[in-house]
Amino acid sequence: MTFRPLAADELTEAIAKAALDAILIIDDEDRLVYANPAFEAMLGHDPATLYGERIHDRIAPERYRAAFRQGMRHFREHGEGPVVGTMTELEALHQHGHEIAVELSISRLALHGRWYAVGVLRDITERKQAEDELKRARDQFQSLTENIPGLSYHCQFDEHWTALYVSEGAEQVTGYPAEEFIHNSVRTLQSLVHPDDTGYVADRINTRVAQKRGWDIDYRILHRDGKVRWVHEKGRAIFEHDGSVAYLDGFVHDITRRRRQAAFQEMVATISVDIVNAPMEDTKEAIHRALERIGRFFEADRTYVFEFQEDGRLMDNTHEWCAQGVIPQAGRISEVPLEAYSWCIEKIHRQEPVHVPDVEALPPEAANELAEFRAQSIQSLLMLPLATDGRVFGFYGLDVV
């Protein structure tokens, strides 16, 4: 058999007819001069009924037509336009009146001294539906995670747990905005873990991933405010079909308050047992140990007990614990008239706590208290009444100096 290559016209026509995309050619008056079979399959119009007609009036939704007419005027004069040589996503009008999503690319063609526009339309309805469904799923996921207190993450299984998604709850938990973690733009999730816990956390997660099991762990992080926070993390690995790790999903929330409440209850129980079981001659030492535990728990510089004398007019600083470097005050504070510090003592007698976050903000009627607190370099304090059978017999307090 003798090989005969196709002529250029035959080849062009064969390609146009075989193409799945709609191909149309319009002249500089916006009249249709050619359309391939895919045009009818896509938009429902028989091209033979549209030849010589202004095509944009038939297949362009009304909202586009003014812009198309303006563009065609420029194209007629210069063979150029804002969409020539570009690819655009828009909607086309079907013969039956509904719109379909299409991807349009336009190129120009010069024939017999006139400009022609060659348009290729690709039906992207299914792709747009898939994109819309994906967006809805993402929006639902984001809405869900943003309304749950805590930090949700979606990250890679690498050295730094490179974050692909972090919920807005990140700022509540860590002090840092979520966007600073995305693709490690400013910092990594891993960098927040307390240095003493990094090995434990990494080992636990790596072990669970290797076992294809989720993890449920407590550990400490370094908050933006410089304080240490306890968090609870629950997560799992998502695997590819070949068994490799695709990514990690998890949730982290702050359990500092819960941990401190549990630790406080444990401390109170320890103090109670210690004092109750202490021999009479060791009561003072037991109270001192209690003050030390309280001071260290609340990170105070000084804790103390004041007891009122029987006549109810004087008080003594009977017990005290001081952090390292803090000057003790108990030795110089005894037989202090209650009326000298009436602003504080009146609250204590009413069995109210005295909380002073900033001594410099004390009211004028607390002038005596302010002078004494300044003398001791106290910045803030808390005093709590001591009472038995409804009778107040003193108070204990914590100072930050």
UniProtKB/TrEMBL annotation:
Residues 86-136, 215-267 form the PAC domain. Residues 120-147 form a coiled coil. The keyword Ribonucleoprotein does not apply. Signal peptide: none annotated. InterPro entries: Biofilm_reg_signaling, GAF, GAF-like_dom_sf, PAC, PAS, PAS-assoc_C, PAS-like_dom_sf, PAS_4. Keywords: Coiled coil. Residues 7-62, 158-212 form the PAS domain. Gene3D superfamilies: 3.30.450.40, PAS domain. Transmembrane segments: none annotated. Pfam families: GAF (PF01590), PAS_3 (PF08447), PAS_4 (PF08448). PANTHER family: BIOFILM ARCHITECTURE MAINTENANCE PROTEIN MBAA, DIGUANYLATE CYCLASE DGCP. This is PAS domain S-box-containing protein. It comes from Ectothiorhodospira marina. The lineage of its organism: Bacteria, Pseudomonadati, Pseudomonadota, Gammaproteobacteria, Chromatiales.
